[in-house]
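Let us work through a complete example step by step.
Step 1: write down the sequence.
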Amino acid sequence: MHFKIVSTFFLLSVSFFGFGQSRFSPLERQYLLSEEASIHSKENNLHTSIQPYFINETKGLYNQDSLRNGIKYNIKRNNFVNRVAGNFANNYLLPIDSGIVSIRATPLFDLELQYDPSKKRQYYRNTRGVLIYGDFGTKFSFYTGFYENQASFPDYINRFVDSNLVVPGQGGTKTFKGDKGQDFGIPFGYVCYAPSRFLTVQFGQDKNFIGNGYRSLLRSDNATNNPFLKIQTSFWHVKYMILYEQFQDIRIPAPAVLGRGYPKKYSTTHYLSWKVNKSLEFGLFESIIWQSQDSVGGSRGYDWAYLNPVIFLRPTEFYNGSADNALMGINLKYQILHNLYTYGQVILDDLKFAELKKKGSKYPQKYGFQLGARYFDIAKIKGLAIQGEFNYVMPYTYSHRLALQNYTHYGQSLAHPQNANFIEWIGIIDYNTKRWSFSNRLVYTTYGADKTSATNFGHNIFADIHQYPIYYQGTQITQGYKTTMIYNTLTAAYIINPAVNMRLELSFTYRSQTTVDTKELDKIIGFSFKTALFNKYYDF
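Step 2: predict the structure and record it as tokens.
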């Protein structure tokens, strides 16, 4: 069944009933830091690995007003100017309430200047946008907006844009001002129907995340927004999520897509989360991704066999005799103390245990794992938190012998920004107190890159891997052109409006990338005034 048919049917259904409420929190990692203690408490039944969080499930865990009223400005609303100022600083610029109907609108922006004194180079970002969401009764909601951006970037991001044709996590771009800057837009939005506390249905174009870490090896918000239909149901101690999605491959020469759009691919993802007890959360993940055309070039569209919401996808893929890309995984979280939890993931792309037992086996095992821990309110200092994380992904993981069926969307991995063939260590310190927020994030990564386009050592998951003989010569972690990357960013922010995470932010970023014969160094000082509602990953 073609994705357009599913989309049209769902939109018509929602139009018949009306729209609904903005029921999901932003994915931006600092947005809910002050609520961490309540979100990860042993006393609630929230499945924390499915993000963004459903607001109807989190609003009962903490008193949002008491947490945010303490940093609201007291502005007398005795005239129009003061009312506008009060809305801008404390809430949404345009609030409309008329009984059953509630609508909010506010401008979005990210105005940033950066300077690298060692290179005597200046960078900037000029982002303007708008956010509108509305509640129609208690069951329907909508959430929509866009960002329009002009920006200039350091050389390593410019190389990424040239190679992948996208700004990291923010979609396609075009150059302006003589190739010195990038011009790009980011639309987003969804409609949501929640007929009961046991069921939510969401259709839109946005991002999703599965996991408890800073990164996710199963599904992250690394790539740009994509169309999806998400169904979530909860019962007993179980939460079950189904994702029907459409992705695009933009690495096709422009003349080949004129009039037809970029080649499409589709996926079905099942994720089952089980709260085994108050401490242990266990999740099972499976996903199938396939191209929109069949083996003879005909239109395949959305495969009916994968529409079944409860079937096991890997046996179905085998039963169909297909060459589709199947991934499976596990997510674990264990709450050791009320303010300390550990977490981990395993992703299995292509793993043969029989080959693991063979000495000198050359079969490429495609898997990865994650281990981490988060400790907050340290020494009873409210708002102080630390996090450590380790990620390990074997070469060629997420890739496929058919390039259009790799685990990617719009030029980026659907999991980790380093793709595959890497080892990564992450350390994060956060401290929030009233209007102030401080953070330091350190990322240390070693990976094996390709020195030329004629070889593929497993870092480039977009390549058609059967073309490269090295794929059949065995695999070792970080094989290839060994590269070491250190990324450390320190930020200090003053929060103006917590409702939209409006903040003044000062930052310093240190990045070094070293190979056997080159070293690149960036030292960037930045100042920004922004509304931060989604994550931007430049730490690669």
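Step 3: interpret the result. Helices lie at 3-17, 36-39, 55-58, 64-69, 80-90, 155-164, 313-319, 353-357.
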